[in-house]
Amino acid sequence: MTHPVHQPPQPRVTSRRRLRLDTGTPDAGGSRLGRAVRLGTLALMAVLTFFPFYAMVLISFKPAGAVDFPGILAPWNLELSAYQRVLGGSDLIRWFINSVIYSLVSVVLVLLLATLAGYAFAKKRFPGRSGLFWSFLAMVMVPYHVTLIPTFAMLSQLHGVSTWWGLILPTIANAQAVFLMRQFILGIPDDLFEAARIDGASELRTFFTLVVPLCRPILATLGVFVFLWHWNDFLWPLIMARKTDMWTLTVGVSSLQEQAAPFNVVFAGATLSLAPVFIAYLFAQRHFVEGVASTGIKG
Amino acid sequence: MSAHPALSEAPPRGEPSAVPRPDGPSPVRPRRLLSHRRREAYAGLLFVLPMALLFIIFRFGPSLAGLLLGFFDYYPGDTPEFVGVENFKRLAEDPNFWTALKVTLIFGFLSVPTGLAISTVMALLVRRGSRTVNFFRSVYFLPVITSLVVAAAVFGWFFSTGGPVSSVQSALGLGDASWLRSETLVILALVVVNVWTRYGYGMLILLARLQDQPRELEDAMRTDGASSMQRFRHLTLPHLRPALFFLAVIETTASFQIFDLVYLMTGGGPARASHTLVLDLYERGFRNLEFGMASAIGGVLFVLTLVVAGIQHFMLGRDRT
Amino acid sequence: MKMPRNLALTGVLATSLVLTGCGGSGAENDEAAGADGATGEVTMWVYPILTDEAANKKFWADTVQKFKTSNPGIDVTVEVYPWAKRDEALAAAIASNTAPDVVYLVPDQVPVYARSLETIDSMASEDALNDTQDNAKAAATVDGKLVGMPLLTSVTTLVCDKRAFKKAGVSTYPTTWDEYLALGPTFKAQGIDLSLITADASGTLNVSYYPLLWQAGGDVLNDDKTAAAFNEAPGVEALDYFKKMYDGGFINKDYVIKAAPTEQTGVAKGTVACTWGVPTQDLVKLWGAENMEVLPPLNKAESVGYGTVGSLSMLKSTENKEAAMKWIEFATTPENSKPLLTAASFYSPRESAGSLYPAGSVDAALEKLVPEMTVGAVNDKSRAVMGVLTPEIQAAVIGKKTSQQALDDAAKAADALMK
């Protein structure tokens, strides 16, 4: 193995140095041809990626009627009628606020609890650790349609139907998030924790001043996805929120649509409801990339 | 208690420091070590506790209930009737179940490696941020937020007779039949769309992981004259391994549970050529209200996924020492 | 994977909670029925039958208001739920004893939920029952029990695009299978599809293969509804007919596997001659009423089409059954349902309703065909039967199996389901 050998770990000063990250300088190596191939690949993927999204946005601005690919993708003959239909809902603001509550509260809770659990699974030895971890992980593998009715039946036993806790708490038990955080925290060198321990930092202090800052890139990524999953969630809010004033945007908007709603209306709904996620992504992107490099490790 | 000794043996360590420590923790006196161990165990349990409580209440119970229903005849609202392995016997005798199992496995084994490879390549390509790359990165996020209904509609046209793919086909003299009407190509079409909708997720996760790869190591290797392939194999790949293990498990689970996309694009057709297990589960459960049978399928799928995850753990997830 | 014992225990506990049928905590209406039985709360789930949200809400609010004046003791709540995933929402609600008291169902759903639905033969008033057309009642009847009160009906008949006929130079409209199929090549030469027909596994056969089957003189199930009958001669004939349209290139072949939304099909572009599966309201929007030629359903052995029937069903878990029944009868009375029907181009299943539409209109022409419509033979496994039949139809049409073999295979699977 040609693993490069390192200096034995020293307390924080070196650690901070060792963890300095890519700061965004373009790859110094690589021939001009290599760079052209790379840019070409990026551009091709971008076109393939962009196309359906473009179709979604553009068709949402088209009048109802024939959807004739590829003719429909010409960027003229645009109008707002689909948006008028979608935005005609009387409770739209209520539903929007509900979606924000559902998504934001969930993001905060999932990130906090998943990081705590992921840290414990990755770095703490405690009895039953691997059994518990695999039990968690196994929960991703039970198909959603199988657990849906038992979960709902149980919540209705607990009088959780049409309550905020009943809507939110079950979605916090997110095995994927715990798993992801564990995998990332596994990669943080033990020496950092050792150093913190020798410094006499408490467990919680270590968690908040060491683990959380080091996880910023993945927390930003995960946060966007947890937001997206909740923001897009349809089935769970549909069956849990039995009063229309607790409906989320997804449920509310679809309650305005006829059984076979025209494309422009469906796409306008999709575009509108996904815009906040994209904005959230643009904000979070900074954190994906700069990560620890810009902040250093505050210890 | 666990069938996975690798997870319980030796404290996990991060790769960059996967070098034996020269002295180990010897300066610490034995008594303090013990109390440290105990303190660590308490802290671990305490940190896991909130999530564990939520899991016990909202996941373990319902999941177990859902899976146990596979041994019952259950119509919603009625009291379930215990039927032993009857449902599984009926499945075993049903050729449609075996078709669905085969379709699911083929789909998964095509989709997961393709998706992982594309995610990895894309993550490597966009890891160094320039203004252009930043722009591309935002674009690659778009499939993640493009609704599946839209993706199904656009790709439905993409593969349809007379659409772009079929035009190329007929120009090559291969006929203009839609992929979605071909029993062999339909899976391929679904793999393409599935990878399209999911590669951005993998890319961003790997990207986050690449952010904490120490730059110095790579520079050192480069100075030593290591080729970019060598650098990837010996430095980047091991560094990505925990994240790749995560993605392999999650993507396998997701593709074994593929539903919405298939439902929207093919409905399982032609002639069951894309009829996946969860489509079967959904039909029996929510269209026919035979929840016992649906749960039995869920149980089979659960065991299948767990076995594959175990294999992946063996290949990717263990901490090499 | 072994689970720690205490976790398994929790699971079993939770399971038994779920499995024993959830005790009595589910019902929200604790109010005891009054002396005359007609008090209490009634909750109903409907779907956006009217596209205009405001109009839909107003219709139900007005109806509830009117009901309240004659039944002051009954509080009716109407919740307009999304169409999407309505089976999941309803199944979950039934499983946890939190189902609504009344729900709007279509013929595909009625047999599936029949076990949870109240039989209303003896509860509904004689007048209302006698006034309702037999074919509409049949759509809400499972195993001889009426489990829903028909609210509205529709008609799927042959509707042709006058412009397409003009373009292809065809001046007589088809009435029989043979006449229709013979037009295939003429339309094809003009780039026009003869029809729009699908065997989409996530859709329904009610507007594609089943009408052909009925027209050929067959039915899905045998007379006592215990076994499949679609593999008899008429079924094979119907499937062969479907296949001839496919092989001749008279229909868009892709749609056999997966139906596209109507706006994406030739119907929206004016390249489909006739259809019997597209809701007429959509055709009015896409073609214009002036271009629609409404014809009787095609004839082979008989002229028959599928008529969807939206009915209001009462759940068995309903506490205030009399109140719920009063509301159902009130809402399905023609004078009360008329604004809903006319706004959405539906027809009344009641004989006393007379004609709701001005003579000469498309709707008036369709309305006259209501008695020709059927939902065919149904039992509680009908939807499952459709589920095993559809892929076999695809197999036959794309040429993987012969029609007879495909239908025999499907019949075998269907009979196993009905055992």
UniProtKB/TrEMBL annotation, chain C:
Gene3D superfamilies: Periplasmic binding protein-like II (3.40.190.10)
Keywords attached to this entry: Signal
Coiled coil, from the record: none
Signal peptide bounds: 1-27
Family matches, as Pfam families: SBP_bac_1
Protein name stated in the entry: Sugar ABC transporter substrate-binding protein
Organism (species): Knoellia sinensis KCTC 19936
